[in-house]
Amino acid sequence: MNHRADAHLEAWKAKQELAERMIPLIGQLYRDHDVVMSIHGRSLIGRSPVDIIRAHSFARKIDDVELPLEETSAIVSAIAEIQPGPVSVDLALLANDFRASGSDDLDGFLRSALAPAIGAQPGGGTDVVLYGFGRIGRLLARIIIEHSGSGNGLNLRAIVVRRGSENDLEKRANLLKRDSVHGAFNGTIKVLEDENVILANGVRIQVIYANDPADVDYTQYGIEDAILVDNTGRWRDAEGLEQHLKNTGIGRVLLTAPGKGDLLNVVYGVNHDAITDQPILSAASCTTNAITPVLKVLNDRFGVSRGHVETVHSYTNDQNLTDNFHKGARRGRAAALNMVLAETGAAKAVAKALPEFAGKLTGNAIRVPTPDVSMAVLNLQFEQETTREEVNAALEQVSLTGALRTQIDYVESDEIVSTDFVGSNRAGIVDGLATIVTGDSAVVYVWYDNEYGYSCQVVRIVEHLAGVHPAHLPALES
Fold first, then answer.
1. Is 456 one of the annotated active-site residues of the chain?
2. Given 286, 378, 458, 473, the catalytic residue
3. C-alpha dihedral over 136, 354, 397, 49, to 10 degrees?
4. Domains along the chain?
């Protein structure tokens, strides 16, 4: 055998062994203590050895040296001995900080770094109800189930739907189990017909059939002070959504669509600090969530005087499969055969999360024949001249260590295409190779999984409302 090839194989096997040792410790800390471990925002919960090795490869962006598994494995083992309370730990940042400290006392360093979480106790859990179980509703269910941890975070208690057929329950379970875009459910799903229950990885989900909010009595299912996520889009203003609050058992309502009127439209990471005691909130749209964090970074760094947003958006369920009547303009034409020019309110909606953008942005949308993953093209006029390198460097650094790193990702690849971003948990991914800068004008391309990435943003808001979103250690840079 070629000795060089043999050495590479042995090195790979050594990485696999270290990753395999980390997995049970990562799982135990998550299940028993709600400790979430990640590498530059890429969660390691429920991941395979290869997934863990791949996550380490992203760390090479900082200093062109791949993050050694020997370092992170030692950190995971030490944290398992400390057994902190609920916390989100970035192993890459901890490893970098420990290396920079010059200390050889890993236990002492970690006890100091994790001091706020040592002795912290998990909360009592918060009930969640999904009103509607379409594309976003099912992805929310998957994510919340994956985030179950110790059971002291979000507890998915029920979904509310209109009965579609006699075998409705089985069909709902199958749609949760299999997805043409996002693949199979990671786990097991059973149906308890006599109880109208879907059992997913041990999580008991009550299926409630109702045509209107007034038809539901949540208390008979033991649901109390729940956060209800309305995925139907049937009501978009406070007057319509407050119907949910008339039911005993519902404490707050979150809309997964742009809210109308005075509803607070939340883009997590940008303006979630504006959440106080509002009973009804909006999670804005997938496009607004994709572009607002990027726009915030660029505005803070370079100043944005005006701009135009063009979204190249995958077709959605409100379009027709074949040419047929549709109340909306152009959307009646066959979605899988045409590019369809459409309107988008995302550009104006940015100002609801970032008031400094009021009147600065225009926008349009083109629906294209792909089932998921969209792109936003940001054509911006800055208040100062800059370079492509400066723009990319600002966005890349935020994606690794900034406060918006769970919202913004950054890639540089001349081979990457839309399907490569299916399942991305970031709100938007900057395509660095596509960035164009001329003086004070810039064009920035942002990919986004308009289904899964948006659903992750929604769950972050729900966790914030429930008070179960773990603190980040080390703290994120502003």
1. no
2. 286
3. -20
4. 3-117 (no CATH), 126-257 (3.40.50.720), 286-451 (3.30.360.10)
